[in-house]
Amino acid sequence: MAQETELPLNITPVKERDEPLDLQGFLDEIGNSQEVRVNKLDGRTAAHAVLCTLARRLSDGEDVKLMRALGDDIGELIGECTILRGPSHAKRMKREEFIADVADHLGIKVDQAFRVMTVVFTAVRDRIPEDEVAAVASQLPADLADSFRRPV
């Protein structure tokens, strides 16, 4: 009879590939996805919409940590979000509002915005350390945090 083995709590999922850490590689990954192409979007537009909406949801400081974790080039996309100007910008929003904001920004249907958001979330989380994935997810509503976390 087979025995169950307990896995250590600090395991890191194995990535299937090495993601490029440069901006163009990031944008190409997003732009080449079926979910983005079917909506006639480019990678930069999709990334900008999702990252700016995400930055609006994060507390002061966490947005900066995410920018730094993504590196200078990719992190600059978050820095371009005008909503970050001024004092506290964090806005509590539920999953539906988050996705609706992305849909409005991109001019697409909500169900398509969810798919685009998932592509961008995947591209982001595959380029940041586990502790930053956890920090960002901890500031999102539970159902949205599940979309951001790495699948195990």
UniProtKB/TrEMBL annotation:
A Pfam entry, by short name: DUF2267
Tree of life domain: Bacteria
This protein's name: Uncharacterized conserved protein, DUF2267 family
Lineage: Bacteria, Pseudomonadati, Myxococcota, Myxococcia, Myxococcales
